[in-house]
Amino acid sequence: xxxxxxxxxxxxxxxxxxxxxxxxxxxxxxxxxxxxxxxxxxxxxxxxxxxxxxxxxxxxxxxxxxxxxxxxxxxxxxxxxxxxxxxxxxxxxxxxxxxx
Length: 100
Known about the structure:
The protein has 100 residues and is of the alpha+beta class. Helix content is 36%, strand content 34%. The radius of gyration is 13 Å and the shape is globular.
Protein backbone atom coordinates (compact mmCIF):
# COMPACT_ATOMS: atom_id res chain seq x y z
CA UNK A 1 0.00 0.00 0.00
CA UNK A 2 1.04 3.60 -0.56
CA UNK A 3 -0.04 6.88 1.07
CA UNK A 4 -0.05 10.37 -0.42
CA UNK A 5 0.01 12.81 2.51
CA UNK A 6 -0.88 16.45 1.87
CA UNK A 7 -0.43 19.25 4.39
CA UNK A 8 -2.31 22.52 3.99
CA UNK A 9 -2.47 25.63 6.16
CA UNK A 10 -4.63 28.70 6.65
CA UNK A 11 -7.87 26.92 7.44
CA UNK A 12 -10.46 28.90 9.37
CA UNK A 13 -10.56 27.28 12.83
CA UNK A 14 -14.22 28.27 13.31
CA UNK A 15 -15.48 25.79 10.72
CA UNK A 16 -12.50 23.49 10.10
CA UNK A 17 -14.22 20.23 10.96
CA UNK A 18 -17.30 21.05 8.92
CA UNK A 19 -15.24 22.06 5.89
CA UNK A 20 -13.01 18.99 6.27
CA UNK A 21 -16.07 16.73 6.17
CA UNK A 22 -17.43 18.49 3.08
CA UNK A 23 -14.08 18.36 1.29
CA UNK A 24 -13.48 14.77 2.36
CA UNK A 25 -16.86 13.63 1.07
CA UNK A 26 -16.28 15.40 -2.25
CA UNK A 27 -12.78 13.98 -2.66
CA UNK A 28 -13.78 10.46 -1.59
CA UNK A 29 -16.64 10.39 -4.08
CA UNK A 30 -14.32 11.39 -6.90
CA UNK A 31 -11.36 9.23 -5.85
CA UNK A 32 -13.56 6.17 -5.35
CA UNK A 33 -14.03 6.09 -9.09
CA UNK A 34 -10.29 5.52 -9.57
CA UNK A 35 -8.93 2.00 -9.69
CA UNK A 36 -6.59 1.30 -6.78
CA UNK A 37 -7.95 3.93 -4.38
CA UNK A 38 -8.17 2.43 -0.87
CA UNK A 39 -9.27 5.22 1.47
CA UNK A 40 -9.04 8.80 2.67
CA UNK A 41 -8.52 10.51 6.02
CA UNK A 42 -8.90 14.22 6.79
CA UNK A 43 -7.21 15.44 9.98
CA UNK A 44 -7.44 18.96 11.37
CA UNK A 45 -5.59 20.95 14.02
CA UNK A 46 -7.42 24.12 15.02
CA UNK A 47 -4.46 25.48 17.02
CA UNK A 48 -2.09 25.43 14.06
CA UNK A 49 -4.83 25.98 11.44
CA UNK A 50 -3.51 23.02 9.47
CA UNK A 51 -5.10 20.11 7.68
CA UNK A 52 -3.48 16.79 6.86
CA UNK A 53 -5.00 14.59 4.18
CA UNK A 54 -3.98 10.96 3.75
CA UNK A 55 -5.04 9.20 0.57
CA UNK A 56 -4.36 5.48 0.52
CA UNK A 57 -3.56 3.66 -2.72
CA UNK A 58 -3.01 0.06 -3.68
CA UNK A 59 0.50 0.94 -4.92
CA UNK A 60 2.83 3.85 -5.68
CA UNK A 61 2.52 3.10 -9.38
CA UNK A 62 -1.26 3.57 -9.30
CA UNK A 63 -0.98 6.76 -7.24
CA UNK A 64 1.63 8.10 -9.65
CA UNK A 65 -0.51 7.24 -12.66
CA UNK A 66 -3.27 9.49 -11.32
CA UNK A 67 -1.04 12.21 -9.85
CA UNK A 68 -1.88 14.94 -12.39
CA UNK A 69 -5.65 14.50 -12.00
CA UNK A 70 -5.33 14.35 -8.20
CA UNK A 71 -3.25 17.53 -8.20
CA UNK A 72 -5.87 19.36 -10.26
CA UNK A 73 -8.62 18.28 -7.87
CA UNK A 74 -6.51 19.18 -4.83
CA UNK A 75 -5.76 22.64 -6.22
CA UNK A 76 -9.42 23.35 -7.04
CA UNK A 77 -10.60 22.21 -3.63
CA UNK A 78 -7.91 24.11 -1.71
CA UNK A 79 -8.70 27.31 -3.62
CA UNK A 80 -12.40 26.89 -2.89
CA UNK A 81 -11.88 26.54 0.87
CA UNK A 82 -9.04 29.10 0.91
CA UNK A 83 -6.15 27.00 2.23
CA UNK A 84 -2.58 26.87 0.96
CA UNK A 85 -1.12 23.49 0.08
CA UNK A 86 2.26 23.27 1.76
CA UNK A 87 3.39 19.89 0.45
CA UNK A 88 2.37 16.44 -0.69
CA UNK A 89 4.68 13.60 0.28
CA UNK A 90 4.47 9.91 -0.53
CA UNK A 91 5.03 7.05 1.89
CA UNK A 92 5.20 3.30 1.51
CA UNK A 93 2.77 1.71 3.95
CA UNK A 94 4.17 -1.63 5.11
CA UNK A 95 1.44 -2.13 7.71
CA UNK A 96 -2.16 -0.98 8.02
CA UNK A 97 -4.89 -1.91 10.48
CA UNK A 98 -8.24 -0.40 9.62
CA UNK A 99 -10.97 -2.48 11.25
CA UNK A 100 -14.34 -2.46 9.49
